[in-house]
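Before surveying the methods themselves, we first show a specimen of the format, giving the amino acid sequence and backbone structure tokens:

:::
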Amino acid sequence: MKTILVLSPHPDFAEAVQTSLDAAQYRIVHRLTADEAEPLVVHNLASAILLDSELMGVQSILCIERLRRRDKKTPIIAFTERAQADWEEEAFLHGVTHVLTKPVRQRLLNSVLEKLWSPPAAPRPALNVPAGNTAIFARTAADQNAGGQFVNASQTLDVLRDFSQMLTHSLDAEAMLKQFLQFLREMLSVNRVAVFLNRPCAPLAEPIAT
């Protein structure tokens, strides 16, 4: 169970937070001032701090600064009556993690809290290309100067989407070849491409009539 420290001069705000959160997962501890909450903050007993920034000015910023001097890691979620860009900028600069507007919205608050402790997504494993298969990757001129790094997945999908345009020339071999060579020149950043074709085999002799 995680402990949520609620700092507010109004008990109604703490009740709204308690109503919005699952009692089996969160324990709500309400304190009126930062002085009363100091033992919890100093000893890192709270998993998150919900601050009721009733005064949109110097006092609330000083409270945030004071909390951060005593605890530099615990997330602080500040609630305000209305959005003010200047105040929010100061709040973030002094260490606030999120700024939400009143009233307390149950789904939003639960979502924000869950994301605070969600583990980062594991990196996707690299694809193993079997021997003998050909993997086509698009590279830009900048990638070549940087050592030929592969472009991201969305760009690769764009390349595959461009190749599908060649299907419109499926009945015209010459037009299809020109389109393919154009894509190949753009991918490899070359000016000229040569295509060598094998001479077709001689047709089979006609069967002898019996």
